[in-house]
C-alpha cells in the first residue's frame, strides 16, 4: 500500500500487497490482513537513512530522527524506531525488506504529494516500508524549523515552505502501521478530529505557544492499540495539551484554531474555537481552561481574564469545540492577542508543561466606538463670576479614549478643555435667554455633539467705596454722592435703595438713586456712619462712609477740643482769616454772638 500526505488534493491508497485494508476503531485507523492486525514483530522497526538526504548531523538528519523519537516516547506504548545509516545511496526496492528513507525528485511523485510510504506486509507482519519525500514540493520546498509556526498553512502555499518535521512525523505514523484519519470515504459533514494522521498537510500541526511538534491524542491511542505496554506506567504520565490546529471545512485538512468575528467591541460576543487533548495515561478531572487577552503575544494568567471552563478529560481523550466569550464591558481599542491556557490554575503536576498554552495566530482587533457621553442638560452661571462646567461622563472611557473636546459655537471668551471636556467662561454675559452651546467629542472612530444650555443670571450688587466727608453746620443741606455699582452690566437694575440701620434725624435717601440728603445737618463731636443698601433680583450689597458735621472744628481734626480755642480767639479778634467753621450762629460773621455756641460745642452741650 502507499499512504501519502498531500498538500491539497485527497490522498489515494494503492495496494502493493493484496491482504491489507484499513479498519477504523474509535478514530484512528490501522491495517489488517484478514482480521488480524498487521504490526512490526517485536514492536520494533529499523529505518535505513539515505546519506545524501540525511547527512549525519544535518538539519534534515536531526528532524528525521526527531520524527522517529516522537513515536518512540508515546506513553503506554512499547513501539520503538531505530535507524541504520547506509554507506551509499541506493535505488529503492519496495520488496527487499529494507525500510529505506530518502528524498526523490518532485516530478517522480504525483502532483501535490509531499511524502509517500510504501507498505508491504507478509501476513500479519510488516516486511518493508519505504518512505520517500518530494525534494522540492510545490516549487517552495521545506522549512526545516524545529518549531513551525502558523505560517506552515499560509495561503496559497506555506510561507517559507512546508514543515519537513510535520511531514516526516506523519509518514512515520504510516511506517509503524497507522492509516489516515479520516480515511477519505466518509460522508459529507463527517465529524473528524485533528490528528497527526490527518491526510492533508499540516496533518495536525504544532502544539501550544512553543509550536512543539507532538503526536496527537488520537495517534497515541492508535500506537498504544497496536503496540500496548504491559503493566502500569511508573510513574503515570500526566500531560494535558492545547492544540494550535482544528478540524477545517475540508475533510482531513487541519486549520489554525480561530475566533469570530475578527473585530469586536466592548461587550460583544466572541466565538472561539479550541482543541484540548489528554496526552497522558491518566484521567484528569475538573481541569480549568482559562481564556486570556494580552497586549503582546505572550499569554499569561496576569493578562485580562476572559473566563474559564472546567473539564474532565479521560485518558487519551480530546475535544474540539466552540466557546462563546463575553468581551469586557469596557476596554481600550487596539490590537490584542487571544490565548488559552490548560490548567491555568496550575493544579496538575504534568510531565510536560510547555504545551498548555495557545496564542491564536491572528490578532484580535478591538474596535473603537464613536464617543458617547451623557446628556449635558442645563447649567447656571453668574454674570461677572468665572464659570466652569463639570466634565462630561463618557459611557466607555477606556474604549473611546483618547477624545478631543471642542465647542462648535463658543461665546466670546468661552473655552473648553480639549482633554477633559470641561467648559470655562471667565466673564459670563447675562442674557434673558439661555445660551445653547454645542459640545463636540472626537476620536479615531468619529465625532458626536450634544448641547448644553447655560443660563447667566445677574450678580448681587457690589458698590464702589464712598469717601468720608466733613461739613460745617453752616454749609447748608448735605447731599451725598450717587452710589456706583462695580459691574453695572451684571448688577443692574437696582430695584431699591435703603439705609442700613437708623439714619440721623432728618436724613433721607432716594429709593431710586441711592442719593442721601440731609437738609439740616446736626453738628456732632463724633462722625455719623451712613450705610446704604442696594437691592436687586439676586440679593443685596452695601456701602458705608462717615460724615462729620464739625461746627467749631478749626484744626480740621474732626473734633472740637481745647486745640480749637486759640484759632477761634484769633478769628474773633481779627488776627486770623475768617473760617466758616467759627460762625456758630450761621449769620455770616464771627463775632461775640458766636462765643456761646462755640463754648457749648466745646463742653459738649
Strand residues, percent:
25-35%
Report helical residue fraction.
under 10%
Task: Please report the number of helical segments.
Answer: 7
User: In one word, what is the shape?
Assistant: rod-shaped
Mean pLDDT: 90
CATH-defined architecture of the largest domain = 3-Layer(aba) Sandwich
In total, the number of strands is: 37
Q: Can you list the strand order of the major beta sheet? A: 1-8-9-7-5-6
Low-pLDDT regions: 6-25
Task: Assign the structural class, choosing from mainly alpha, mainly beta, alpha/beta, alpha+beta, or little secondary structure.
Answer: mainly beta
Provide a short characterization of the protein structure.
With 605 residues, the protein is mainly beta. Helices cover 10% and strands 32% of the residues. It folds into 5 domains: 4-226, Collagenase (Catalytic Domain) (3-Layer(aba) Sandwich); 240-366, Immunoglobulins (Immunoglobulin-like), CATH 2.60.40.10; 378-457, Immunoglobulins (Immunoglobulin-like); 469-549, Immunoglobulin-like, CATH 2.60.40; 562-602, no CATH class.
Question: Can you offer a commentary on this structure?
Answer:
A hairpin with a 6-residue loop joins strand 34 and strand 35 (516-518). The protein has a six-stranded mixed beta sheet, with helices on one face. The N and C termini lie far apart (144 Å). The chain has five domains: 4-226, Collagenase (Catalytic Domain) (3-Layer(aba) Sandwich), CATH 3.40.390; 240-366, Sandwich (Immunoglobulin-like), CATH 2.60.40.10; 378-457, Sandwich (Immunoglobulin-like), CATH 2.60.40; 469-549, Immunoglobulin-like (Sandwich), CATH 2.60.40; 562-602, no CATH class. Helix 1 (59-72) packs across helix 2. It contains seven helices and 37 strands. The protein has 605 residues and is mostly beta strands.
